[in-house]
Design brief:
The protein is of the alpha/beta class and 314 residues long. It contains eleven helices and nine strands.
Length: 314
């Protein structure tokens, strides 16, 4: 086996950002890999026969380049986040490549990488975690990959409608227009991955379908990806009803945040119950994110951590 592994970076500005001030990013990469990284002209390389080191080196450099091309700064914190993700042998790397997409989707933490792997291994995955931890975005990206690579026939998006002082019945428009504000965050995620016009075409052709949770009873979805977002706001009855909509050849991704339950009165969360009950079923995947997985504005991670450490719990 060739003892060297080289990557050519044709853009000098990207190469400069990748290396960091005084090669600070290269030093972080070297510490993570345990081998020296050589920079010769526009080429970065490592000289080691270990295929795991070569695979990690390629993953790390490609990941940093994609971040830079997406307009992100290759700061020490960003590079450290990338280095936290372990690319295990036997995986086709942990990135999500959506046919026709405008960007690759990479995990920013080890939990996110494990979540992607779990969605590929299980037909039913529940992911609980704080806002900004990537649970919904990664589910949307994986669903788009599966559907646009012709492995499934479509995507069904749903969220529980939890009213906050204004009844849906009195809002203007038809049912789709009434529920659109609740599902808008899911479309925002899709439009970060695909051109907006592509998302619109998928919706017009019903490859992407929105199905209000209250109107799913009696339906069975076959060969589709079902995504239930904001699952913490489902009642126990709603959650059981949703779970039994799963038909032959389908996958189900359920996401929620148990710190943001908006159910009225003494209504118990169906998501909380499902996490407890279904954890005993080995064929079902359970993933729990933490504040360390938050990948929005760095301040969001600090906000989540502050609430996690709050001694006064409501």
């Amino acid at each position: 086996m060739d003892s060297s592994c080289a990557i050519i970076v044709p853009d000098a500005d990207i190469l400069s950002k990748l290396c960091g001030t005084n090669d600070s990013n290269l030093k972080l990469i070297e510490e993570s890999l345990g081998v020296q990284v050589y920079a010769r002209g526009n080429e970065l390389s490592v000289e080691d026969q270990d295929p795991d080191i070569q695979r990690r080196f390629k993953f790390i450099v490609d990941r940093i380049i994609d971040e830079i091309e997406d307009g992100a700064a290759a700061s020490a914190d960003a590079v450290a986040s990338i280095l936290n993700v372990n690319v295990r042998a036997g995986m086709d790397s942990t990135n999500i490549v959506v046919p026709g997409g405008v960007r690759r989707v990479y995990p920013k933490t080890q939990n996110q990488a494990d979540y992607i792997a779990l969605m590929r291994q299980r037909d039913l995955v529940l992911c609980e975690g704080p806002a900004g931890s990537g649970k919904t975005f990664l589910a949307i990206a994986e669903a788009l990959r599966l559907v646009l690579s012709k492995q499934y026939r479509g995507i069904v998006l749903t969220r529980p409608v939890v009213e906050a002082g204004e009844s849906l019945g009195f809002l203007p428009g038809d049912l789709e227009q009434k529920t659109a504000p609740y599902l808008r965050p899911l479309y925002d995620s899709m439009e970060m991955i695909l051109p907006r016009e592509s998302v619109a075409r998928l919706a017009e052709s019903h490859i992407i379908e929105t199905a209000p949770l209250a109107y799913m009873r009696g339906r069975t979805f076959c060969d589709k990806i079902l995504i239930l977002d904001e699952a913490q706001n489902t009642s126990q009855e709603q959650m059981k009803m949703f779970l039994t909509r799963m038909g032959s050849g389908s996958k189900v991704f359920i996401t929620g945040d148990l710190t943001q339950v908006d159910l009225p009165g003494k209504v118990k969360s169906g998501f909380s119950q499902a996490l407890a009950v279904l954890s005993r079923v080995p064929e079902i995947g359970i993933m729990r994110m933490t504040g360390q997985d938050v990948s929005r504005n760095p301040l969001v991670k600090k906000i989540v951590k502050a609430y996690e450490n709050d001694p006064i719990k409501n």
